[in-house]
Amino acid sequence: MDLLKQLESKLQTLVQQRAQLKAELDALKAKGAEDLDSLRGALDAVRAERDALQQEREEVRVRLEALLAALEQASQEPAAEPVAAEQAG
User: Fold this and answer.
1) Can you list the residues of the chain whose pLDDT is less than 50?
2) What distance in Å separates the CA atoms of residue 76 and residue 66, rounded to the nearest whole number?
3) Residue-wise DSSP of the chain
4) CA–CA dist 75, 79 (Å, integer)
5) Which of 7, 21, 77, 85 is 20 to 30 A from 60 (CA-CA)?
6) Residues 40-76 as b or e (16 or more Cβ within 10 Å = b)
7) pTM
8) HSE of 80 in the Cβ direction (CA atoms, 13 Å)?
9) What pLDDT is recorded for position 78?
10) What are 16-34's pLDDT values in tens digits?
11) What is d(CA 75, CA 28) in angstroms, rounded to the nearest whole number?
């Protein structure tokens, strides 16, 4: 009988440990899910910022190309203003 009681006691201890470990595992899973959601939110924010920066970069590139084209066109036109200023003087 003593052996049976010892085995029953050990079984109860093991069941309690199992329940405790299961509770700890569930808590870790919940924390991991929260962390994952937080990381996903941060990733979405970084992606949105990246997309905004890419859009801004493209807008700057287009404006720069327009400015360079205007400068190139202005440098190819004859300088009419200095001649007009000399004639008026």
Assistant:
1) none
2) 15
3) -HHHHHHHHHHHHHHHHHHHHHHHHHHHHHHHHHHHHHHHHHHHHHHHHHHHHHHHHHHHHHHHHHHHHHHHHHHHS---HHHHHHHH-
4) 9
5) 77
6) eeeeeeeeeeeeeeeeeeeeeeeeeeeeeeeeeeeee
7) 0.57
8) 3
9) 74
10) 999 999 999 999 999 999 9
11) 69
| Amino acid letter for position 74 | A
Residue 54 token pair: 């890419």
Token reading at 33? 């899910």
Count of other CB atoms within 10 angstroms of residue 22: 10
Lookup: tokens for 8: 């029953």
Can you tell me which residue has the tokens 């720069």? 64
Quote the radius of gyration of the chain (alpha carbons, Å): 38
